[in-house]
Structures are given as structure tokens and as C-alpha cells.
Amino acid sequence: xxxxxxxxxxxxxxxxxxxxxxxxxxxxxxxxxxxxxxxxxxxxxxxxxxxxxxxxxxxxxxxxxxxxxxxxxxxxxxxxxxxxxxxxxxxxxxxxxxxxxxxxxxxxxxxxxxxxxxxxxxxxxxxxxxxxxxxxxxxxxxxxxxxxxxxxxxxxxxxxxxxxxxxxxxxxxxxxxxxxxxxxxxxxxxxxxxxx
Length: 196
Description:
By secondary structure, the protein is mostly helical. Helices cover about 55% and strands about 10% of the residues. It has helices at about 1-20, 70-105, 110-125, 150-170, 170-175, 185-195, and strands at about 55-65, 130-140, 145-150. Strand 2 (about 130-140) and strand 3 (about 145-150) form a beta hairpin.
């Protein structure tokens, strides 16, 4: 009977040992930033939109591999980045206008929306003066990625120029938005909200 108990204990121990799951390998570390070209290879943080010292506004643009060569790919990537930069700048200026309207009591909701629409149209038509490629690198798939940036002074100047041009094109709308104030003063005040 003792031998049976010992045998049963041995078989039970063997079954438990065989049924336990093998230790799992530690998961591979995940990169904080990867290229968007489908390679999933680690990339510098600026490619994923991390702030870059010395520049107030940045955007990343990609270009697929092209037989037209690296200069063409660089131009295509820079164009894509500038489109994104214009969209970001458009949202920032619209937020400045809304914040200005809320704090000063200028204009009703419909007028603010019309002003924002006018500014967005102007940003689309405006060149982003001062924007430049500050970083570039090839992607693992053979394409190109670039970082286009504007420093704080350039962002302020572009914002003012866009607002002034838009105001000159839509004088009646801006008079309705903020009656009795010069367009230059209004542009200056709206840009100040960005700096707060």
C-alpha cells in the first residue's frame, strides 16, 4: 500500500509538471515611434510629431519611393508637410478668433463661423512664408520623410498676414465681427491670444 501511495504521488507530480505551461518569453520592446510606411521599424520621435526645440510649429510629410529620384521625393514630402502645417495653423487661428470673440463679446456665432471660414480659405491660398525643411531621412521602404517647421516669429508673422489679407478681402464681414476697430489692431489682438 505504501508503494501504491508513493507511485500515485509520483504520477500526480509528473502530471502536474507536464501540464504547467512553459514560461512565456518576455515581449519584445515596442518602439515609441515607428515609420508609417508599413515597415513598423523604429523611427526618431520627430517623425511622430514630438516637439523640436527652436521651432514653434512643425509637420511631417512622407513620400513613397519614386523613380523620379530623391529630389522629387523630398519635394512631395515637403508639400505634404506644408499642407498639414496649413491645417494646424488654420485650427490655431480659428481658435484664436473664437477665444477673442468670447472674451471681448465681439460678433455672434454665425459671424464668428463666417470669419473662421474666410481665414481658412485664406490659409489655403497663402504661402507659408518662413517654413522650411529642417530634417529629412529615407524610410525603410525607400521613400522619404521630412520635417517642415516654422519658428515662433514666423508663425506670428504668417498669422498676422493671413488675418490682414482675409480682413481686406472680407471688410464687411470683419466690420460686423468687430465694429469700430482697425483691422491691424484686431489682427494684433488675435495673435496676442496665441502667446498666452
